[in-house]
Amino acid sequence: MDSPAAPNPTVSQREQWMVEAKVYQIYDLFANIPCNAQSLMLELQRDNHLQFLNKGLRYLGPSFCVLDANRPWLCYWILHSIALLGDCVEDELEDNIIDFLNRCQDPNGGYGGGPGQMPHLATTYAAVNSLITLGGQKSLTSINRDKLSMFLRQMKHLSGGFRMHDAGEIDVRACYTAISVASILNILDDELVRNVGNYILSCQTYEGGIAGEPGSEAHGGYTFCGLATMILINEVDRLDLASLIYWVVFRQGNECGFQGRTNKLVDGCYSFWQGGVLALLQRLQPTVVKQMTRQDVEKGDAVRDGSQISEASNISEGEESLDGTSSCHFSRGVDLNSIGYNFIKEPVARGPLFQSMGLQQYIILCSQEQEGGLRDKPGKNRDHYHTCYCLSGLSVCQYSWSKDENSPPLPSAVLGPYSNLLEPIHPLFNVVLEQYCEAHEFFAGF
């Protein structure tokens, strides 16, 4: 009797095999060349990246017209990448960028995708992070915090979430961009926080990751946004952190890079979106242990009592959290605007939760273009978006063994020459740490 025919591979399987073949070809080449050639392959092409980035600030070709509503994002991706590389822009260009972003600022608050465009939470986040990255009096004072606070309140929805723009979609990305901006500008308050945690909880899926909206699939970008938001509003222990860790660590694939969703292809940008999630969870280890201990105790009680135990992520309104505060409103008695600052002051209790060297290898060997810029994967073109998030992920990797913000990485934590070392970032906001601290001190005076 003939054996059954092998099933035809799916489109996703064929694409996965093609990506693996390209990546393994690069790794095989690297493994079989002399040591001096390996050192050259592992070198971060800093000067070429800076040339690519500075050119993008001065001129973009006609093909970029499709990003006309994303011009603050282009500013952020490029400026943040330059800052990660330890450089800055010339004074005249900096003034031009500040003036341009000021023209994107709506008279009633928030920033649009370009001058005259309606304000949008995503481009507001990008514009604010760009101005914080530039730093200095002119840049930081250009942000109209009062009007921006009014705009954030207008975007607040009864569900607890936020709309991206007037009559726009409600999702976890909107929650993060609103809360992140409010936190970094020292305008976060109980009104903005109210019920945000409930909305994000409704987006944590059976897999453990977080979806963009209730009922959707867990996704790396939304998982970062949801987790970072829950930290900033002091409600992170309402999430099921154990299942969240389980989901994220299994998104690091055979290629050593991260995928954004289950059964999807690896993508360089998830070096930050997923690597950043694990950098946040690494700092939450005491909370994770405490939550898992409580769950173990409750399961033991359930066996003895025969009672039903609610999951940690389903605490009802009025019950208590791990710290004894109401799960409905954890911010009571907490200085919300200091949470982001205090988060990076706590010592890190454990090492990275992912293969740090493997991810650095993927970024440098597979995402880096020798002529400058970084890309999604081999076979794709470089762009400013992937340059930003690949470099952000590389920074996360390099500092993943550091015990505190004042501990520079050891050479053993940096793949390739130590000159590859980037600037550290604040993992909640994805801005360079030095620029974040300047902004925090500046806005704390208001």
Automatic annotation (TrEMBL):
It is an enzyme of class 2 (transferase). Gene3D superfamilies: 1.50.10.20. Heterodimer of FTA and FTB. GO terms for biological process: prenylation. Binds 1 zinc ion per subunit. Keywords: Metal-binding, Prenyltransferase, Repeat, Transferase, Zinc. One of its GO terms (molecular function) is zinc ion binding. CDD domains: FTase. It catalyses: L-cysteinyl-[protein] + (2E,6E)-farnesyl diphosphate = S-(2E,6E)-farnesyl-L-cysteinyl-[protein] + diphosphate. Its cofactor is Zn(2+). Signal peptide: none annotated. Catalyzes the transfer of a farnesyl moiety from farnesyl diphosphate to a cysteine at the fourth position from the C-terminus of several proteins. The beta subunit is responsible for peptide-binding. It comes from Quillaja saponaria. GO terms for cellular component: protein farnesyltransferase complex. Residues 44-431 form the Prenyltransferase alpha-alpha toroid domain. Belongs to the protein prenyltransferase subunit beta family. InterPro entries: FTB, PGGT1B-like, Prenyltrans, Terpenoid_cyclase/PrenylTrfase. This is Protein farnesyltransferase subunit beta. Its EC number is 2.5.1.58.
